[in-house]
Amino acid sequence: MSFRIKQDAAINSLFLNKNGALGTNRTWDCRVNTGTNIRFFLFSELNNSNHIYFENSTTISNGIEYKVDVVYDGSGGLQVFVDENGAGSLVEVGTYVKLGQSSNVVTVGRLLTTSTFNFDGTIRDFKKENSHDIESNW
After folding, report:
1. Residue 18 three-state SS
2. Closest by Cα among 100, 121, 83 to 17
3. Over the Cα atoms of the chain, what is R_g?
4. Which of 91, 81, 106 is nearest to 28 (CA)?
5. SS3 string of 33-97?
6. Model confidence over 45-104: pLDDT tens digits?
7. Per-residue pLDDT tens for 13-39?
8. pLDDT on residue 32
9. Residue 6: which H helix or E strand, with range?
């Protein structure tokens, strides 16, 4: 998947996400962690305590637009590119098994269940680009 993002205020925000099958667990999400770095999470089926995430090392500054590409190979290989820079780290928490499947909608700019992580900025040009994106129901 790819998209463009411009942050207006540096906050810990969750700007793209998809709820899991139960509606409470998440399937995946993308966030600006503590207002500075983009992280992309994949959650194990029905258990959010088990997940992997990639945190890109590019520092996000307010008022600047960035192009973000997320690449997943289907077997735990996850990487986030910010303006073509793929530097960062992949972290596994708990035992990540596989991505949960759901037909829930993708939420842009916030979580459905709370306004705590609302994004302050612009997200545009969101698209799924190929079959190597996260599962078939991105």
Report:
1. strand
2. 100
3. 14
4. 106
5. ECCCEEEEEEEECCEEEEEEEEEECCCCCCCCEEEEEEEECCCCCEEEEECCECCEEEEEECCCC
6. 667 788 889 999 999 999 999 999 998 877 778 899 999 999 999 998 988 777 666 677
7. 767 777 766 556 777 888 888 768 999
8. 84
9. strand 2-7
∠ CA 113-117-121, rounded to 5°: 125
Burial class (CB in 10 A: 0-12, 13-18, 19+), 29: buried
How many angstroms separate the CA atoms of 32 and 89, rounded? 15
**∠90-107-135 over CA atoms, to 5°?**
50
Strand order in the sheet with 121-127: 78-82, 65-72, 2-7, 121-127
Helix or strand run (H / E) with residue 19: strand 13-19
Give the span between the Cα atoms of 100 and 135, in whole angstroms.
9
Cα 107 to the center of its chain, rounded Å: 11
| Strand pairing report for 26-33 and 37-44 | antiparallel
